[in-house]
Amino acid sequence: PKFFEIHAKPVQKREGKGRDTMWVCPKCGRSFQRQNQGHYCGMAPESVDAYVKEQDEAHQKRLEELVGLVRSVAPDSEGTFKWSMPSFQSRTGSLQFAACKQWISLNVGADVIERFRDDLEGLRHKKDALYLPYEQPVPWETIRQMIKEALREES
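Request: output the structure for the sequence above.
Response:
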C-alpha cells in the first residue's frame, strides 16, 4: 500500500462547517477542501523503516539515504509518526518527511529553511519544507546541516 492515496468521489458540500467541503474520500470518509487531496487512509506503518519499505522500489534508496543521514546526525532521535508522516523527534526538535511521486518532502521548519535559503539554489522549497527530487543530485552536506538545526543537535 502507498502512503498517500487519491480516491475520486463527487464533490459534496457540508452545512455549518464554516468552509465548504469539496471532496470526501470514499475509502476513509475524511473531508477535504481540495479536490482529490492526497492523504493517508488507514493505519500508519509500524516504523519509519516499514514506511520506507512500503514505497516504490525506485524511491527506497533515496529514502534510506535520508533516514540514514538523520540517524547519523541524531542517533538518539526517536522515529515516530506525526500527522501521518514519518518523524524524527529529539529532546529539543523534530522533523518530518513524506515520500511523494517526484520527491521527498522534508519538513524541517521555517526557521531552518530561512537560515539555509542561500544554500538551496536549484531545490524547490516552501516556507517550512524542502523538496528532494529522486532523480537529481542532492546536496547532502547542506541537508546534514539542516537536519542538525531542525533537531537542534550539537556539532
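The mean pLDDT is 85.
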